[in-house]
C-alpha cells in the first residue's frame, strides 16, 4: 500500500508547517506551497516545497501540476494559505481589501478547483477558517466567506466521496501575530482569556487537521472543528 499524500498551501510556517511535520512523521508524502519557495523552512528534506502565491492562478496551476507529477493523486488537500489585515473600515484601502479576498477566498476556491482531478474517493479537503469577528469588517467578510463555501462544496463533492471540512483556530502562537506587531509576551498575557489557560500551538491545529483527514473522521463532512481552548464556549447554544 502506497503512503498517503498531502498538499498543504501556506505550508512553510506556522500551522501549515506544523501540519506538514506531523503528517510527514506519520508516513505521508507531503508537498507544501509558500511565497518564499525554497528558502530554508526547516522542514524535512523530503518534504517538497513549491513557490506559489495563492492569489496567482498560474502559480496554483504549477503547484498542482507538480503534485500530479510527483504523487499522481492526493489524499489530503489542506487549504491553509491566508493573510491577516485587521483594522477598522476607515483605514482599510482597496489594496488591503483585494488582498484579503484574493488570497483567502479566491486562492482557496481555485486551488481546490485545480486540484480536484487529483482527489479520488475517500480524499479529504480541510479549510483553515479562523477567527473573523472583532478584527475588522473586511477581514471578517473574507473569513466569513469560507464557511459557507466549505459547506457548499461538502454537499457538491459528497457524491464523489470527497469530504470537505474546516478547522477554526483560536489564539495560536504563529508568525502572523509577529507580523501584526504582537510580541510573544503580549500573546501570553492574553492566556487568561482562554478557559484552558494557555495560548495554543500550531501543533494543536495540526492534530485536528490530521484527524479530519483520517479514516476516524470518515463520517464527517461539512463541519467546522473549532480548536480554541474553549474561547467562546459560553456564547454557543
TrEMBL record:
Keywords per UniProt: Oxidoreductase
Domain of life: Bacteria
CDD domains reported in the protein's UniProt record: SDR_c
InterPro entries named among the record's database cross-references: NAD(P)-bd_dom_sf, SDR_fam
Pfam family, one: adh_short_C2
Family note: Belongs to the short-chain dehydrogenases/reductases (SDR) family.
Protein name: SDR family oxidoreductase
Amino acid at each position: 500500500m502506497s503512503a498517503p499524500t498531502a498538499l498543504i498551501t501556506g505550508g512553510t510556517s506556522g500551522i501549515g508547517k506544523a501540519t506538514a511535520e506531523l503528517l510527514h512523521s506519520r508516513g505521508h508524502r507531503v508537498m507544501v506551497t509558500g511565497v518564499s519557495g525554497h528558502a530554508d523552512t526547516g522542514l524535512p528534506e523530503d518534504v517538497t516545497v513549491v513557490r506559489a502565491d495563492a492569489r496567482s492562478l498560474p502559480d496554483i496551476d504549477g503547484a498542482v501540476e507538480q503534485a500530479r507529477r510527483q504523487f499522481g493523486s492526493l489524499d489530503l488537500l489542506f487549504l491553509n494559505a491566508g493573510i491577516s489585515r485587521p483594522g477598522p473600515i476607515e483605514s482599510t484601502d482597496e489594496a488591503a481589501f483585494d488582498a484579503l479576498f484574493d488570497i483567502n477566498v479566491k486562492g482557496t476556491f481555485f486551488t481546490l478547483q485545480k486540484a480536484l482531478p487529483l482527489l479520488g474517493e475517500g480524499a479529504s479537503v480541510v479549510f483553515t477558517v479562523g477567527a473573523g469577528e472583532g478584527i475588522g469588517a473586511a477581514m471578517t467578510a473574507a473569513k466569513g466567506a469560507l464557511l459557507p463555501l466549505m459547506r457548499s462544496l461538502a454537499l457538491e463533492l459528497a457524491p464523489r466521496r470527497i469530504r470537505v471540512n474546516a478547522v477554526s483556530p483560536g489564539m495560536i502562537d504563529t508568525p502572523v501575530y509577529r507580523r501584526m506587531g504582537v510580541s510573544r509576551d503580549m500573546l501570553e498575557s492574553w492566556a487568561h482569556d482562554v478557559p484552558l489557560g494557555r495560548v495554543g500551538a500550531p501543533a494543536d491545529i495540526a492534530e485536528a487537521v490530521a484527524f479530519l483527514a483520517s479514516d476516524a473522521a470518515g463520517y464527517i463532512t461539512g463541519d467546522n472543528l473549532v480548536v480554541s481552548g474553549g474561547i467562546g464556549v459560553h456564547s454557543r447554544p
